[in-house]
Amino acid sequence: MSKMLNRRRFLQASAATAASLGVSAIRAFGSDYDEYVEAIVIGSGFGGAVASLRLGQAGIETIVLERGRKWQITDKGDTFCRIDNPDGRAAWLSPTTILPTPVPEIPIDVYTGVFDVKRGNGINAYRGAGVGGGSLVYGGITYQPTEELFYKVFARTIKYSELDRVYYPRVRSILKVSPIPDDILQTEYYLASRILQEQAAKAGLQVRKIDIAFDWDIVRQEIAGQKVASVIAGQVYYGTNSGAKNSLDRNYLSMAEATGNVEIRPLHVVTMIEESDRGRYRVVCNQINEQGVVLAQKSFVCRYLFLAAGSIGTPELLLRAKSNGTLRRLNNQIGKFWGTNSDSNTIMINASQTNATLGSPGVIAVEHLDNPIAPVILEPFQSLPFIPQGLNPILGQGISKPEGYFTYNVSTQSTDLFWPINSADSQRNAQALLYTYERLNQANGTSLAAPPDYSFTAHPLGGATIGEVCNTYGQVFGYHNLFVVDGSLIPGSTACTNPSLTIAALAERSMDHFLNRVK
Ligand SMILES: Cc1cc2nc3c(=O)[nH]c(=O)nc-3n(C[C@H](O)[C@H](O)[C@H](O)COP(=O)(O)OP(=O)(O)OC[C@H]3O[C@@H](n4cnc5c(N)ncnc54)[C@H](O)[C@@H]3O)c2cc1C
Fold first, then answer.
1. C-alpha to C-alpha distance for 214 and 231, rounded to whole angstroms
2. Please, are residues 475 and 306 in contact by the beta-carbon 8 Å criterion?
3. Which residues are bridge partners to 115 per DSSP?
4. Which residues is 262 bridged to in the sheet?
5. Is 392 helix (H, G, I), strand (E, B) or coil?
6. CA of 257: how far to CAs of 49, 53, 251, in Å?
7. What are the domain boundaries of the chain?
8. Would the pTM count as exceeding 0.90?
9. What is the tens place of the pLDDT at every residue in 399-410?
10. What is the pLDDT of residues 48-86, one digit of tens each?
11. Does 462 sit in the ligand 1 pocket, CB within 6 Å?
């Protein structure tokens, strides 16, 4: 019998005894918390999933507290709602859908849906919610930065050669990533990608296929009509019903649970973290129902606490702890060094058909890393509904300086986010992007529908960064057993790539270091 199960039985027995006395389980034995567990992981996205698996494999009893619900792929293929026919499942506790313009807001029921936005000053930052975090809504793009660009962002204390040799391959093997096979790239669903590929070649720009965390055999089944059309129908950002997306709940997290040492608790919103006695941590959360109504408040005490609530959630928990004095030794760098990965959305106008609402996004990347102003990459950004033929939305990414920051708003008990959209660095990145587009347009007779839009990011990073808030392995300065393992560690950019691979690889590296220490 697993240790977790034994523990649960002990707690149930304790609860029965306690209930007869009219008190909660552990409180009955004189403590101010409901449960004790060796390790707690807050959040189940990339950082949290890696931490959970490695803790479980090391035999450390772990509870994962995740604010969102669990999503199970079914044969019926209706787990998630469609982008072009949304309902409450589309957004986190919001009365309307929240996809960025040009997609219109549509009224929906308030529900614990998969997609969330943090509306800030100068930026809207998008993220996922649910067991699997951002992987539920992501495009599966699994992209490794070059060594040269990596060191434009990260300190030399992180050895790129080690990531390249050990951790990037380890993550790729668990996510089961591979580039799009040619037979699928040649279908009508990927016309927009092929168009950009050809345009880049004509402009003398480097272009290549990127690894994607999709099961391409399932995509073939979608094409054959044997599975519900999901990836091929541009159904990615609200979840992928066919099961083609290898989201974290279907690899890292299910492997973690299979160790018998890890229990995932969905619909648990952590509201407070604090230092407890004997160097332990107390975590308080609200258990909610699927409509977001609070059912109960629970508290836990653990020896090891891993923060993985993402680069919006983790800075918020830390800033609240600092503001409320529950973690008094946190320094003043919390909430700083945040950035957007220089995300931009641009729509290219083509003379011919593009099929831009179909096909999963970003199967190829145009790499203009020697752009004379600043390095830039472009990826097709299909899968948004309502894009007419002839248009091709493109996601640009670069290296933004981490000039964004959060402040803590005591009256709302949450953070305010600030991003200097017109800073010199932002303008330089925008000029670099325009330079690349001019080259594409001149070679292909294309044009831009409007200037690139920098008002949103799907790749928020930073807020509890390495070297400022944490050491190189994510240990928070001043707290021996408190760790950040998510995108908050990264100062604003993953060097011209989508961030999930680097977030997960750094988490793998931190967990190796941690487990070597506690062995
Ligand atoms: C639309 C979209 C598409 C994307 N596509 C790609 C892509 O193709 N490739 C790529 O590399 N990246 C992509 N990204 C970015 C990627 O999803 C993120 O970089 C990544 O998920 C961040 O990982 P993380 O571990 O930092 O946090 P997250 O994955 O955001 O996980 C944080 C988790 O913590 C939970 N949480 C937050 N607060 C609390 C709380 N108080 N209590 C309990 N739980 C909490 C959240 O619900 C979430 O599950 C995309 C993002 C979006 C929004």
1. 9
2. no
3. 128
4. 62
5. strand
6. 10, 8, 10
7. 1-31, 32-518
8. yes
9. 999 999 999 999
10. 999 999 999 999 999 999 999 999 999 999 999 999 899
11. no
